[in-house]
Design goal:
Largest sheet: 6 strands, antiparallel
Strand order of the largest sheet: 12-9-7-6-14-15
Number of strands: 16
Oligomer: single chain
Number of helices: 29
Helix content: 40-55%
Number of domains: 3
Structural class: alpha+beta
Length: 796
């Protein structure tokens, strides 16, 4: 029996070291976190996670302007596992939702480093070698820059490493008398499932992971009972994973084209001519090559030669690297580089496995006389830091903008990949040395400037965890002591996260410092709390704010920009009798019409108002025409929240269901009204939709307002709407003789509305002095100064 296979039992000091490494890396990752989404992939992932957290739904909505809202096509693991962070943020008034979600990858990557540490220890390497391997992984490879993102690769990486560690422990447990065996196999299967459900690329690694038990095959189960137990557990977990995936994709309709194995094979065959270009790019190119962006991984090429009997366990990751490079080169074809990202994003899951190959070199360098090897390790570590520092210190997309400004056709995908000078490594260093702002949340979130107190707190936390790590390496620890330290570290991390996120809450990058937007958010959350409602953003102006701060259950959608939203200089503003649908982007209206109609009420968040020059506000105009407006909350001309009942309003010229022919003053006729529900019995919680039709005479007074009132049994006003016709889009000053106008309003009756007899009144009055127009019937008989439309009986 090889003693190294079974002889390295983990101690309390190992777990304490792992706990310290986790805290140290998390503090560093938080220090360099930007807490901002940069790519569409991240937003789709976050959109899905919010749907899971708030509504238990697989439907995306926030990113409706980027892709038609509907069933998500991302894998389920990351959105599901991010739910606790979003849920906790939703429960706190002073923690941003996006801020909290973007701590997911720092937590995942720190956990990956801990698993790597334990893995190296179980391979028989010393505690110092294991700790240095974990820290080099966490701070000198591309794992660090990806903690600033919400990409799936870090979780896929953790899942694969957990699966590999579980298989290693399963293999070793068969040779350890009395050791639990099946739990490690269960851990391996759960890790494998998590990796695949995080990103389908996990499937590439699974066959190679099965090589891990090969070395210990003589210790594997032999008896029928052992084989039966192992097989049954594997079958149960496999069926559970496949069943969950089937439910997610086939029943819920999510996942889209994911896990289409035959489709991927077809892509690979079609792209076979690009195999060598893709492999060369992923492995060697200055702009994407994995060894350029993680120089310490070069040690993995040397490690197997110095691993002795452990050669197999540290060399098979090279096959994993080759498999990922080949598959991605074939499947992704011309976009093998993976778009806008730092280095070889697709090879992130391979990184910790290659660090296993570096472990023998690190162990050798720790020997007292191994000065040359120590120099090699230090050089590799410094080179790795030199690569990662500009990546985490600056915004990645800023350099892509610099490349586009060069005028070189396709610069990010040509010279930036194959020319060292234009590579992101040197490019980001040039930006950093030229004074580019640090892309750290503590440096950029607050309008008052960098939060140096928060920066000092994070540095102090890293120092404390570093001291704890040093203590774990120097002094043995018992499991009782480990328990105490564990509670302390967990509590410290919770306090650190809570305090830090609260300090960053008024993030100016998300417009969190806007008093007006925060007031709007509060009104929106309270207004939608007890109703079946949806929220639509007219465009992306307030997208970031809603992303981080809105905590209501109402689903919200971002709509595409309307090409005709702006009136060209010198052009005429559309006439008031224009059909707004003629100037409305149909791709913006379709989500409102399709998804909005599934709710009783909708809110429209506008970034412009009546006093904004040269803006048509086509969507607001259309909603005032096609729906019934409940109210308008004007926080400023640039921050406006409008609420509508989604009941479809009658066409402007359609004859009213209930004709009146009342003359209001000398120049206007109230032709009639439509009511949903009509006069009669109405229950609290209902919505009264009222559409009045007006016709202009020869002389229509300017500045008229229409008042619609729900009068209570005591003769007082229970609800009222006073507004310019058509929500202000067709003021009476623009009424031409014979013009027919529809004015649509709605009253949302509260559930606790007192029962009784209520009447709906309508008046027309001057905005200048408040005087009401006299009401006369068709015969010219004066009635009163209001028109009684109909009455309803409120009954519980």
């Amino acid at each position: 029996m090889d003693s190294w296979i079974t002889g390295r039992r983990l101690t309390a000091a190992d777990y304490l070291a792992g706990l310290s490494v986790f805290g140290l890396l998390f503090a560093i990752y938080f220090f360099t976190a930007s807490l901002r989404f940069e790519t569409g992939d991240e937003l789709f992932m976050y959109d899905t996670a919010v749907g899971f957290s708030r509504r238990g739904s697989v439907l995306r909505s926030m990113t409706a302007d980027m892709d038609w809202p509907g069933e998500t096509y991302v894998e389920p693991a990351q959105p599901v596992l991010a739910v606790p962070l979003i849920w906790l943020a939703d429960k706190s008034d002073r923690i941003g939702n996006a801020h909290a979600a973007l701590l997911f990858n720092p937590l995942v990557t720190a956990a990956t480093a801990v698993v790597l540490l334990l893995y190296v220890r179980r391979l028989g390497y010393g505690a110092h070698a294991a700790v240095f391997t974990a820290l080099l992984f966490g701070l000198t490879t591309i794992a660090w820059p990806y903690t600033k993102t919400f990409h799936r690769e870090p979780l896929c990486t953790l899942g694969l490493l957990v699966a590999a560690y579980g298989l290693l422990r399963w293999r070793q447990s068969w040779a350890e008398p009395g050791a639990a065996v099946l739990p490690w196999l269960a851990l391996a299967i759960v890790g494998a499932a998590a990796s695949v459900l995080a990103k389908e690329a996990g499937l590439i690694a699974l066959p190679l992971l099965m090589l891990i038990p090969v070395l210990g095959r003589r210790f594997m189960p032999r008896t029928g009972r052992q084989l039966a137990g192992t097989g049954l557990l594997a079958l149960v977990l496999f069926v559970a994973a496949v069943g969950g995936l089937y439910y997610y994709m086939r029943v819920l309709g999510a996942g889209g084209p994911r896990f289409d194995v035959f489709g991927r094979i077809g892509q690979a065959i079609a792209n076979r001519g690009l195999l060598f270009e893709g492999m060369a790019g992923l492995l060697l190119s200055p702009g994407k090559g994995v060894f350029w962006y993680s120089p310490v991984l070069l040690l993995a090429l040397l490690g197997p030669w110095y691993a002795g009997a452990r050669r197999f366990d540290v060399s098979w990751p090279l096959l994993l690297l080759l498999a990922f490079a080949v598959v991605y080169a074939l499947v992704r074809g011309q976009i093998w580089y993976g778009g806008t990202n730092w280095g070889a994003r697709y090879l992130v899951p391979v990184t910790p496995f290659l660090m296993l190959g570096a472990a023998p070199i690190i162990e050798r360098a720790l020997r007292p006389a191994a000065i040359l090897w120590r120099i090699v390790i230090i050089a590799a570590a410094l080179a790795g830091l030199a690569v990662q520092v500009p990546a985490v210190a600056t915004n990645l997309l800023d350099y892509y903008r610099v490349l586009e400004a060069t005028g070189i056709p396709g610069a990010p995908w040509t010279v930036a990949i194959w020319t060292p000078y234009y590579s992101a490594i040197l490019g980001n260093w040039r930006m950093l040395l030229a004074g580019a702002p640090l892309d750290f949340a503590w440096a950029r979130a607050l309008a008052s400037g960098a939060d140096w107190q928060l920066a000092a707190l994070l540095v102090a936390a890293a120092v404390v965890f570093g001291a704890l790590l040093q203590r774990a390496l120097r002094k043995p620890a018992g499991f009782f002591e480990l328990t105490g330290w564990s509670f302390g570290v967990v509590l410290a991390l919770l306090v650190l996260g809570f305090v830090s996120l609260r300090r960053l809450y008024p993030d100016q990058r998300y417009r969190g410092d806007s008093v007006l937007l925060q007031a709007m958010r509060s009104s929106l959350e309270s207004g939608s709390a007890n109703s079946d409602s949806a929220v639509f953003l007219n465009n992306r102006t307030y997208f970031d704010f809603m992303l981080n701060y809105f905590k209501g259950r109402a689903v919200w959608y971002t709509l595409e920009l309307n090409p005709k939203e702006l009136v060209a200089p010198g052009a005429q503003h559309p006439a008031p009798n224009t059909d707004p649908f003629d100037i409305l982007n149909i791709d913006a209206w379709t989500p409102v019409d399709f998804f909005g109609r599934q709710h009783a009420q909708v809110f429209l968040l506008m970034e412009s108002g009546p006093y904004t020059p040269n803006v048509t506000r086509a969507l607001e105009w259309a909603m005032n025409t096609d729906m019934h407006r409940v109210r308008a909350l004007e926080f400023s001309n640039e921050v406006r929240l409008l609420e509508f009942s989604t009941s479809k309003a009658p066409a402007r010229a359609a004859p009213p269901e209930f004709a009146l022919e009342y003359r209001m003053g000398d120049g206007v006729v109230l032709r009639g009204y439509d009511a949903k529900p009509p006069a009669g019995l109405v229950s609290p919680g209902s919505i009264l939709n009222i559409s009045t039709q007006w016709q202009a005479g020869e002389k229509v007074p300017a500045a008229l307002a229409i008042g619609t009132y729900l009068m209570n049994p005591q003769g007082g006003i229970a609800f009222q709407d006073d507004s310019v016709p058509v929500g202000g889009f067709w003021p009476s000053a623009d009424w031409q003789a014979g013009a027919v106008v529809r004015h649509n309003v709605a009253f949302v009756l509260p559930n606790d509305l007192a029962p009784g007899h209520y009447e709906v009144w309508c008046i027309l009055y001057s905005q200048q002095d408040g005087s009401r127009m006299e009401v006369t019937d068709a015969a010219g008989t004066s009635i009163r100064d209001y028109a009684l439309l109909y009455s309803v009986e409120i009954a519980r």
